[in-house]
Specification:
The structure holds 2 protein chains of 2 kinds.
Chain A: H1 2-21, H2 25-33, H3 37-50, H4 55-67, H5 71-84, H6 89-101, H7 105-118, H8 123-144, H9 155-159, H10 214-231, H11 235-240, H12 253-265, E1 270-281, E2 286-297, E3 300-313, E4 316-327
Antiparallel strand pairs in A: 1-2, 2-3, 3-4
Helix pairs in contact in A: 2-3, 2-4, 3-4, 4-5, 5-6, 6-7, 6-8, 7-8
Chain B: H1 9-21, H2 31-37, H3 44-63, H4 68-80, H5 84-97, H6 102-113, H7 132-155, E1 162-163, E2 175-180, E3 185-190, E4 199-205, E5 208-209, E6 226-229, E7 232-235, E8 246-249, H8 255-259, E9 268-270, E10 282-284, E11 288-289, H9 292-298, E12 308-312, E13 317-318, H10 320-342, H11 346-350, E14 353-359, E15 362-363, H12 364-377, E16 381-392, E17 402-413, E18 417-429, E19 432-439
Parallel strand pairs in B: 2-12, 5-10, 9-11, 14-19
Antiparallel strand pairs in B: 1-13, 2-3, 3-4, 6-12, 7-8, 8-9, 14-15, 16-17, 17-18, 18-19
Classes of the chains: A alpha+beta, B alpha+beta.
Chain lengths: 330, 440
């Protein structure tokens, strides 16, 4: 028993010391699997110092480099390996996967064609390539038809594991894509509707005798200032251009004024210009003015024709009616 | 893009084959040999025309690198010539730039699958067999969009031709819009010098009404055909999502539409739901729908109250001489009307009006009476027409030709002066252009 026991210890010792001196490929593969690339690389370097052409060491070094994100070095390593050992399938496979990840699908394809010409076993590469491309196509189709990407369509992740040369990832199956109803676009009612004017774009009363003289000029200036007050969002000044009992369309003056105040304050900026005045008489101390109004704000623009009736209160012309006559297109 | 010159005749047929069908016969395993064997594209001149297509597409992309359609076509052409890597490179860049361009994703899927079998039509993939009714409907819509876009590219041969619909923009309209429903195409034309035809600035894919044909009644889901003008602009923040980047309402129903008893309203040029680059060709309730990026690009070109939008089933493309002849004919008719009006000879003046003439509040009878009365009160009249824009009205082939003239009219007389813009509809009755509508 004692002799046997010592013998056992001896074997154990010799094994351990051997391990320390020379790490096994399985251990290195384990390190790569665990993502411990620097450790794997340093162990591989010590092995390659003694046996610098060993294809297994070189192959694993390429894998570790790829794992560490040193893609250019990994590619160089695989290319060197392919040159030295053109009949080994795995370097083609792994290099093709790197190319696929870099989007160099045509190069990967060329590699595959070369491999197929020399070794039928490289069909594995074809499968991997097909899996990756199928997954990408499925992803593209899912986006085209607004279908949820099926979980297996995330085959790109599975392709990340292709760098294991002896454990090729099985080809991604063309799984049926599960449809769910496309989300209907939100469709609330119209938030904003352009003012409904009398849609006819009627011109100025062509042969109506216009009013000339000082009063006509005065009301034009009044309406220019009205536009200016509106443009500068000076609501109090704007409201003062209307008669004290101005109350359109069944609204009380107060309701109307409150509504105007809210609407004028809403846009970030407003620019109102008025032009092409036609002033005609509308009774004692009253003038009718037709004009073109160009309204522009950050959220709306239009050009409309309007008709105002102004009345003189004391020395002051104020608006007693205002109505839209429709869009102007010219 | 100033002009698009596509190859004609047999060559065009070869290209239809090569672009719309043979693209999808491309099989990666044969890719290297496709260049010289496909769809008869093996003669030097056909190779040349293929090369020209690339040049045209590159030009479009240089003018606007957001011209996603040009990028899609370029990828398809690469695919067609067997350059799969370039095709995929182009389509991948495109899907990154325009992730909402669903058609581009579909074509990308086809390109990726082309290695593993023939792809005979867009989206004809074994991966798309079990996609349900909704999926199939969407696939059909994307196919329809692809066909509409390709059809426009292949069939439209503009060369030096100009549309009859735009017979002049006057001196104050900088930009005019022409919509050709048959090709789902919107053309933007810019004003050139005074007597030259307008110049094509760009054209875009657009979606129109779900139902084909001219609009007549509210809710008929058709896009109206006629001469319209943009009335306003509504920013996207004031609109539901479906209108996308904003909206430009037009004045449908116009004077003629109302006379004909047409109903409905709310015909707009507008954008697309966020999350969708484009919509199927026949998809709206009558509006003309652009990708948001294109609508935004047009925002500074479109002036509410000014920009004309001529919508037609199919444009009439004229060479410059014929365009000039048609324009001169109408200009002459207008000038004759102006002279006869100025002459104060009411009979001659009224002979320019058609029997079914109307104006607001007037028939020909009341108009004639009014004009005769006014002519008697005048000792002289000076009438000057300027800024004359002419738009041929879309009519059926058997109908009498019609034109909308929009101009500035400076009027001076012993008892009245005026300076207004007018819109006049003229119709060619037998051999004479007569005014059927006049409005200020």
């Amino acid at each position: 028993m004692t002799r046997q026991f010592y013998f056992f210890i001896l074997i154990l010792f010799s094994l351990t010391s051997q391990l320390q001196a020379k790490p096994s490929l399985a251990d290195i593969a384990g390190l790569i699997e665990a993502g411990q690339y620097p450790q794997a690389l340093s162990q591989l370097d010590s092995l390659l110092a003694e046996d610098k052409h060993n294809p297994h060491y070189l192959f694993n070094r390429a894998r570790a480099l790829a794992g560490a994100g040193r893609q250019d070095e990994a590619i160089a390593q695989y290319l060197a390996l392919i040159k030295a050992h053109p009949n080994l399938p795995e370097p083609y496979n792994n290099l093709a996967v790197i190319y696929i990840r870099q989007g160099k699908t045509e190069q990967a394809q060329a590699l595959f064609n070369k491999a197929m010409a020399t070794h039928p076993a490289y069909a594995r590469v074809y499968k991997n390539l097909a899996a990756v491309n199928t997954a990408r196509a499925q992803d593209a189709y899912a986006r085209a038809l607004q279908m949820p990407a099926a979980s297996q369509a995330m085959g790109l992740e599975m392709a990340d594991k292709l760098s294991l040369p002896k454990k090729p990832t099985p080809a991604v199956q063309a799984a049926p894509i599960v449809m769910t109803a496309a989300k209907p676009p939100a469709k609330p009612g119209m938030v904003y509707q352009a003012n409904k004017h009398d849609a006819d774009n009627k011109g100025m009363p062509a042969e109506k005798q216009p009013v000339a003289g000082v009063e006509a000029n005065t009301v034009q200036t009044v309406l220019q200032n009205w536009a200016k007050a509106w443009s500068t969002k000076s609501v109090d000044r704007y409201l003062h251009f209307y008669s004290d009992d101005y109350s359109p369309a069944g609204m009380s003056h107060a309701t109307w004024a409150a509504q105007r105040r809210a609407r004028i304050q809403r846009p970030k900026w407003i620019r109102v210009t008025v032009r092409n005045f036609a002033v005609t008489a509308a009774g004692p101390a009253r003038l009718r003015v037709r004009l073109e109004q160009e309204y522009a704000a950050d959220n709306y623009r239009d050009v409309t024709r309007k008709e105002f009736v102004l009345q003189k209160f004391g020395g002051e012309w104020r608006i007693i009616t205002e109505r839209g006559l429709g869009y102007i297109v010219r | 893009m100033k002009k698009r010159i596509w190859p004609k005749g047999l060559l065009a047929t070869a290209l239809i084959l090569s672009v719309s069908v043979a693209i999808y016969a491309a099989n990666f395993h044969q890719a290297e040999t496709l260049v010289s064997h496909q769809a008869g594209l093996n003669t030097p001149s056909q190779q040349q025309s293929l090369q020209n297509l690339f040049v045209q597409l590159d030009k479009r992309l240089k003018q606007d690198k957001q011209d996603h359609e040009a990028s899609l076509f370029k990828a398809m052409l690469y695919f067609n010539t067997g350059a799969l890597q370039k095709a995929l490179g182009e389509i991948e860049q495109l899907t990154e730039r325009a992730p909402d361009f669903h058609l581009a994703h579909l074509v990308k899927g086809d390109m990726l699958m082309s290695r593993y079998g023939q792809v005979s039509d867009i989206g004809e993939s074994p991966l798309l067999q079990n996609i349900g009714d909704k999926g199939r409907e969407k696939l059909q819509q994307l196919r329809a969009e692809a066909r509409a876009r390709l059809k426009a590219m292949i069939e439209i041969e503009l060369g030096n031709k100009v549309p009859m619909q735009l017979l002049g923009l006057g001196s104050s309209i900088d930009t005019a819009i022409l919509v050709e429903k048959k090709y789902n195409r919107l053309y933007v034309y810019g004003r050139t010098s005074k007597h030259e035809p307008p110049r094509l600035i760009r054209d875009y894919y657009v979606s129109t009404g779900k139902k084909p044909g001219n609009k007549h009644v509210r809710g008929d889901l058709r896009t109206p055909e006629g001469v319209y003008f943009v009335t306003s602009w509504i920013a996207d923040k004031n609109l539901p999502d479906k209108y996308g980047a904003g909206a430009f309402p037009v004045n449908y129903p116009n004077e003629l539409d109302r006379k004909l008893g047409k109903t409905g309203d709310g015909i707009w040029l507008h954008g697309t739901y966020r999350g969708f680059y484009s919509r199927p060709p026949l998809d709206s309730e009558g509006c003309v729908v652009l990708p948001n990026i294109d609508l935004s690009g047009l925002q500074n070109e479109i002036i509410p109250g000014k920009t004309p939008v001529v919508i037609t089933e199919q444009a009439n493309w004229l060479d410059r001489a014929e365009w000039q002849r048609q324009r001169d004919e109408i200009m002459t008719a207008l000038e004759q009307w102006r002279q006869d009006w100025e002459s104060l000879d009411a009979d001659k003046y009224l002979s320019h009006y058609s029997d079914d003439f109307w104006s607001k509040g007037h028939t020909l009878a009341s108009w004639s009476a009014r004009k005769r009365y006014l002519a008697r009160s005048k000792t002289y009249q000076h009438i000057k027409l300027s800024d004359i824009a002419l738009f041929a009205y879309p009519v059926k082939a058997q109908q009498q030709p019609m034109v909308v003239a929009r101009f500035r009219q400076q009027y001076e007389s012993n008892n009245y002066n005026g300076d207004i813009h007018k819109r006049v509809y003229l119709r060619k009755d037998a051999r004479h252009w007569r005014i059927m509508y006049e409005g200020g």
